[in-house]
Every structure is written in structure tokens, then in C-alpha cells.
């Protein structure tokens, strides 16, 4: 075990959402960019471990807690920094774990100060990015003003706060300058961007797609009731710069369950957004989240969810078995039979695979543009994972013809121009 590996090596563990990923990427960039640290992917080896936690479900929180306890046993000498939503939701529990050097959530920038003091290194400048990948997660908003009955996030991330558009444009341009090809706009409640600044998500997107450069923009996840006509028009305005794909959490396809969840749309309103986007582009791609087995979910309620999923033809369904989350209003509602929840999860997962095949088959013998990330693999503009059958330079947009769809993998032939 070389001295270099043991001195100043850092490893990261990110749980949860793209906002968590963005926050860890920022810390990673700042630590690696001036050579003060090397990255290790082995937590047993590194002498600094940074963990960004999640608390969106009881399972997520328990997994983080288990990981933090285990990491200290596996690498007692390492300095461990724990941050993220689970630290806020269950501070005392984490605080009781021995040997953790820093617990912090609200002011993540303090992590860098802790590191520069502990390791006696200058707090590195965040701009000089040396960890080039292909997709750049750009956090433009944090927090949430809504109160879905099953969700703890507003109580751990606070109210919605948008980053000034000038700052967003600056970081966007910097990412382009550093060679990123796809910028993923992300936030805890992306659709509420700008409400606190007198602007909107569509105004932000409109400004960004006018920036010169060879890139495309993807929206990470947005609520259906926030996809208004001005945003829909932007998708019709430029389909090369704005990926024709949206991740629209549905959660349930039954209006009475949506009311109990305190979601702000009904199925009719949700499907209207789908129809409007598909009217202009029949191949527009949709992915979604579904909570399976929410309290009182009857077989009829569940059947309504299946109907909506089949109508939309999502090409990826993230399904989650409902898990009661303490400190949420839904927590006191009676949970349904776990076996029933399990069998419904299986039905949704099988449906997701079938709908993927249906959607992918649309592109058979057609052309898609893949952004190659690594090992000839990447994502199309519709967010279909695809591979090319000849070596292609990483981080390039590759126009490709779909040759086959095998077991969820789309195989393509690059079009040599
Ligand atoms: S929109 Fe609902 S589910 Fe999403 S973070 Fe806000 S309260 Fe939670």
C-alpha cells in the first residue's frame, strides 16, 4: 500500500437524487482539481470519506445509517464527513455514532473549510475542473414549498430557493468551456425555479438554449402541473439543444390516491401535458416515478395506475414500494399488506420492461444521437441507453442507426458523415 494512496486519498459515497450528486461533484472537483487529493474508489483505503445521505424514504435513511456505521468499522483511521438530508432529519441518531469527524448539512461549503484546515491545504478554486466527464448536473434550485403527504423533503431542505439566473448562466458557460456536452438542470423542485425571483423555469431554459456551443440540455425531473405552454413551446422550438425527454413523476394513476398524496394534478391534467408534447413530437420520451401500495390503494386504484402507464408508454418506470416515513402526514395512514405491495411491484417492473421494448422499437432502423460516455455506451436525446458497435471517441454526439434491441440494450451503427 503506497504512501501516496494512504496520504490524501478521498472516496465518496452519494445516496439519493441528482442534487446530492451535484453537491458531491462540486466537492470532488474542488479536492481533485489542484492535486491535493487523489480519488480512491475503495473506502477501506482512503483516508477521507465523504458521504452525502438521503432520507426520502425510511429505507433510504436506514441504508445511510447502516453505511456510516459500517464504514467506521472498516476503516477506523479514516476521517469521515457525513452530510445530506438524513443528517437533518435524524441529527441526534447520526451524532451518536462514534468517530465521525464532521456532521453537516445546511452549509455544505463548510466541508471544504473543514478539509482545508484538517489537511492544511488551501481551499481550492472550484472553476479549474479537471474531472471531465460528459454530463454536467447543474443545480439551479433547492428546497420545496409543497407538502406531498408522504414526503419529508420540505422539512429537511427547507423552502424553495432559486439561484440567480446570471449565476446559473455563468456556471453553464463554464461547464461548456470545460467540454461538457450535456447539461442536466436539476433541483429538488425544478419546476418552481424562479418563483422567488420573479422569473420561471421556461425563462431560464430559454436563456440557456440561446448560448452558443455544441451541447444539449436535459431537465432532470419536473412536476406535470409545472409544464406550461411556454415550456412546451421551447421543446418545439429547438429539439437539438433541448432533449425531447421529460421525467414526470406520476406517483399514482388514480385521482383519489393522488388527492391523498396531496399531488397538485389529476390524471386528466397529467395526460394533457403528455398529449401536448406528443402532438408535436410523437417520439417524445417520458420516464416516471410510481409509488406502489400507497395506503388504501385498492385493486381498482392500482388498475387505474396501470391504465395511465400503458397510455403514456413510459420507457422507464422507477417504482418504489410505499414506505411510511416518520414526520409525514401519510405516516399515520394504514399500510397495505406487504405481499400485495410486492406483487404489485412485480407487475409494474414487468410492465416497465415491456413498455421499454415498445418504445425502443419505434427507433428500429431510425437515427438517434447518442452522447458517448464510456465503453461505446451513452444516452440518446430521448434518454434511451444505447451502445455503438465500433469504437467512438468519448464525449461526442454520435448520429447512429438503431440496428437491434436486445434485452434492454439498443445496439447502433454510427453514421459516418
Ligand atoms: S414536490 Fe412533493 S414529493 Fe417533491 S420534494 Fe416537494 S413535497 Fe416532496
How would you sum up this structure, described in words?
This protein is α/β, with parallel strands linked by helices and 417 residues long. The protein folds into 4 domains: 5-119, 3-Layer(aba) Sandwich (Rossmann fold), CATH 3.40.50.12160; 133-243, Transcription Regulator spoIIAA, CATH 3.30.750.210; 248-361, Transcription Regulator spoIIAA; 367-414. The protein is 36% helix and 22% strand. The chain has helices at residues 3-6, 18-32, 58-74, 85-89, 91-95, 109-118, 153-157, 165-177, 201-209, 229-237, 255-261, 267-280, 299-312, 338-361; strands at 9-14, 38-39, 48-53, 79-84, 102-103, 135-142, 161-162, 182-187, 216-219, 245-247, 285-292, 316-321, 367-374, 377-379, 385-388, 397-406, 409-414. The strands form 4 sheets. A 5-stranded parallel sheet has the order 2-1-3-4-5, sandwiched between helices. A 5-stranded mixed barrel has the order 13-14-15-17-16. Helix 13 packs parallel to helix 14. The longest helix is centred in the last third of the chain and has 24 residues, at 338-361. The protein is globular, with a radius of gyration of 22 Å. The N and C termini lie far apart (48 Å). The relative contact order is 0.08. The model is unreliable at 1-6 and 126-131 (pLDDT under 50). Bound molecules: iron/sulfur cluster.
Amino acid at each position: 500500500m503506497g504512501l501516496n494512496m494512504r496520504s490524501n486519498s478521498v472516496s465518496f459515497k452519494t445516496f439519493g437524487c441528482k442534487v446530492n450528486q451535484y453537491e458531491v461533484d462540486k466537492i470532488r472537483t474542488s479536492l481533485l482539481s489542484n492535486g491535493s487529493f487523489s480519488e480512491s474508489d475503495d473506502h477501506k483505503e482512503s483516508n477521507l470519506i465523504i458521504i452525502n445521505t438521503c432520507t426520502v424514504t425510511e429505507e433510504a435513511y436506514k441504508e445511510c445509517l447502516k453505511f456510516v456505521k459500517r464504514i467506521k468499522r472498516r476503516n477506523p483511521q479514516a476521517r469521515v464527513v457525513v452530510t445530506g438530508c438524513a443528517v437533518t432529519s435524524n441529527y441526534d441518531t447520526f451524532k451518536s455514532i462514534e468517530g465521525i469527524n464532521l456532521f453537516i448539512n445546511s452549509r455544505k461549503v463548510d466541508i471544504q473549510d473543514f478539509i482545508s484546515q484538517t489537511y492544511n491545504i488551501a481551499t481550492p478554486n472550484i472553476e479549474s475542473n479537471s474531472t471531465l466527464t460528459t454530463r454536467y448536473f447543474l443545480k439551479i434550485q433547492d428546497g420545496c414549498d409543497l407538502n406531498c403527504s408522504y414526503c419529508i423533503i420540505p422539512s429537511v431542505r427547507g423552502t424553495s430557493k432559486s439561484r440567480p439566473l446570471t449565476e446559473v448562466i455563468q456556471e453553464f458557460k463554464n461547464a461548456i468551456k470545460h467540454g461538457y456536452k450535456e447539461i442536466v438542470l436539476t433541483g429538488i423542485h425544478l419546476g418552481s425555479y424562479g418563483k422567488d425571483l420573479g422569473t420561471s423555469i421556461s425563462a431560464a431554459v430559454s436563456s440557456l438554449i440561446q448560448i452558443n456551443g455544441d451541447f444539449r440540455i436535459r431537465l432532470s425531473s419536473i412536476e406535470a402541473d409545472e409544464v406550461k405552454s411556454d415550456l412546451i413551446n421551447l421543446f418545439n422550438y429547438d429539439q437539438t439543444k433541448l432533449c425531447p425527454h421529460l421525467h414526470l413523476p406520476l406517483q399514482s394513476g388514480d385521482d383519489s390516491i393522488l388527492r391523498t398524496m396531496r399531488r397538485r394534478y389529476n390524471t386528466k391534467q397529467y395526460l394533457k401535458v403528455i398529449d401536448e408534447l406528443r402532438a408535436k413530437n410523437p417520439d417524445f420520451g417520458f420516464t416516471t416515478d410510481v409509488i406502489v401500495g400507497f395506503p388504501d390503494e385498492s385493486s381498482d386504484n392500482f388498475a387505474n395506475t396501470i391504465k395511465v402507464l400503458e397510455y403514456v408508454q413510459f420507457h422507464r418506470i422507477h417504482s418504489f414500494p410505499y414506505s411510511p416515513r416518520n414526520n409525514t402526514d401519510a405516516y399515520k395512514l394504514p399500510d397495505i399488506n406487504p405481499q400485495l405491495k410486492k406483487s404489485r411491484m412485480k407487475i409494474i417492473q414487468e410492465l416497465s420492461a415491456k413498455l421499454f421494448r415498445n418504445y425502443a422499437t419505434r427507433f428500429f432502423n431510425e437515427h438517434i444521437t447518442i452522447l458517448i460516455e464510456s465503453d461505446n455506451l451513452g444516452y440518446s436525446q430521448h434518454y434511451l441507453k444505447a451502445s455503438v458497435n465500433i469504437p467512438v471517441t468519448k464525449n461526442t454526439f454520435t448520429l447512429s442507426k438503431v440496428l437491434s434491441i436486445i434485452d434492454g440494450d439498443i445496439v447502433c451503427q454510427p453514421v459516418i458523415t
